[in-house]
Amino acid sequence: MSTGVIDYGAGNLRSVCNTLDSLGAAHRLVRNPADLEGVTALIFPGVGAFGDCTRQLAAQGLVATLREWIGADKPFLGICIGFQVLFESSEESPAAEGLAAFPGRVVRFPAEPGLKVPHMGWNHLELADPSDPAWAGLGAAPYFYFVHSYFPQPDDADLVAATSHHGVRFAAAIRRGRLLATQFHPEKSQAAGARLIANFLGGL
Fold this sequence. Notes:
Number of helices: 5
CATH topology: Rossmann fold
Structural class: alpha/beta
CATH architecture: 3-Layer(aba) Sandwich
Distance between the termini: 13 Å
Mean pLDDT: 95
Number of strands: 13
Low-confidence stretches: none
Order of helices and strands: EHEEHHEHEEEEEEEEEH
Largest sheet: 8 strands, mixed
Number of domains: 1
């Protein structure tokens, strides 16, 4: 397996690539469709704003390519903004169009007294199906590292593979076929995150 790591100019590439190196996984950066030659799995790491990300993907000619990849059910791991752009739109950038791989929108945490936004730090997951191979070896309520002010609201509740809670309960991960996408950062989640990425690379 050769893993492509999408580079749209603002992703957390070093941590993801370091994790792949620690797992002995061959990988390369993907900046345009031609870079996908020979790639069998894609990781879309995320840092940055929804609108900036989608505009850069369009500038690099990657929007149609990513839609085709996901539509063909090829292995795909989306992280943070790489999770959010799978949906149609975001309150963060109302004029921007997402990849629309799934119906739904990205919303901001509510402005409530005492609720810190962004949600930053370790939080546990409630798994929809603990027997899912994505969670193998992680226990019933694994902890992962989050940094975000927005989160997706999928129209299809069956997509949601895990939830977490920060003022409100939110979708922390989705699963469909060979696609896994997470609001948390596995590349910053130490042993648990490395195990999740290994599970993804092992085939879901």
